[in-house]
Specification:
This protein is an all-alpha fold. The chain has 13 helices and 2 strands. The protein is globular and about 65 Å long.
Length: 292
């Protein structure tokens, strides 16, 4: 149950599904001045959520087609020269970096507000629409879920440039797409934490890739920073899921137990894979280089 406290109770509103939420632009008028009209969810967003609820097959079919596209693409490129799409790749990474930065700065204020005024259990057991509100933060969390579809294009650049396609890469894309869809459909309140952290890490990661593509990366911007950020993201994911797991079993807690279980398995597997990647790239490789 959501218990508004002063001074936020004066800014209570109702969403399209008659759920209470706090209008962040009312609580923080200065922040509200930075919002655009198109960032406020309308009936169209509610229709989009209804579409997601009624079409659970879409992420499954998409990921299956994604797997087939990888196979077909690698077969096609096997006896052909790699495509030199460096500047196209740079433009794509810059777009994703800017997109992630906007998403981060739109969703982070809502999360910080929630954690400041309410304890962690209240945040994790309240309906997702109440936790997210019905302003720009909600809009950018919904967009976050859909963005996992167009992020699949990352793999296209790897295939046509004939780079090494790691298991971690395609496994991450498949599982995060499905899990993000389910988190939004179930209106799981953990979604805002996952979105904010993911937006933040991707903001840095894609900007790093952009700098690499245009060969302008400064020496201090070590890839180790990105990998550590990714590992910390997985630590947060595992920690949140473990923290919410027992509460999700209680009556009145809106957190979906099935979603928490799936997210925990997903984040735990990511944590293992990223730690393995870190060890092989930065420990074993560095040791071999030093020996040589």
């Amino acid at each position: 149950m959501w218990y508004p406290t002063e001074p936020t109770n004066a800014c209570l509103r109702e969403s399209l599904r008659d759920l209470p939420y706090e209008e962040l632009s009312c609580v923080y008028p200065t922040l509200g001045k930075t919002y655009f009209d198109w960032e406020y969810p309308s009936k169209g967003v509610d229709n989009a959520l209804t579409f997601m609820e009624n079409n659970s097959w879409l992420p499954i079919v998409t990921t299956a087609l994604y797997g087939l596209a990888i196979y077909a693409g690698q077969r096609y490129m096997a006896d052909r020269p790699a495509w030199d799409w460096r500047y196209r790749l740079a433009a794509w990474n810059l777009f994703l970096a800017v997109f992630s930065a906007v998403g981060f700065f739109r969703t982070a204020p809502q999360l910080l507000h929630n954690l400041w005024y309410y304890d962690f259990k209240t945040n994790m057991c309240t309906h997702g629409m109440t936790v997210l509100g019905f302003g720009p933060s909600a809009y950018w969390v919904y967009i976050f879920g859909w963005s996992k579809f167009f992020e699949l294009i990352d793999t296209f650049f790897i295939v046509v440039r004939k780079k090494n396609l790691m298991f971690l890469h395609w496994y991450h894309h498949v599982t995060v797409l499905i899990c993000s869809w389910h988190t939004i459909v179930t209106q799981n309140p953990t979604g805002i934490i996952f979105a904010v952290v993911n937006y933040g890490v991707h903001m840095l990661m894609y900007f790093y890739y952009f700098l690499m593509a245009i060969k302008c990366k400064p020496n201090w911007f070590n890839p180790l920073i990105i990998t550590v950020g990714q590992i910390l993201q997985m630590v947060v994911g595992v920690g949140v899921c473990i923290g919410v797991y027992s509460w999700a079993k209680e009556d009145g807690c809106h957190a979906s137990l099935n979603n928490i279980k799936a997210a925990l398995l997903m984040y735990a597997s990511y944590l293992y894979l990223f730690c393995e990647f870190f060890f092989k790239r930065y420990m074993i490789k560095a040791k071999r280089t030093k020996t040589l």
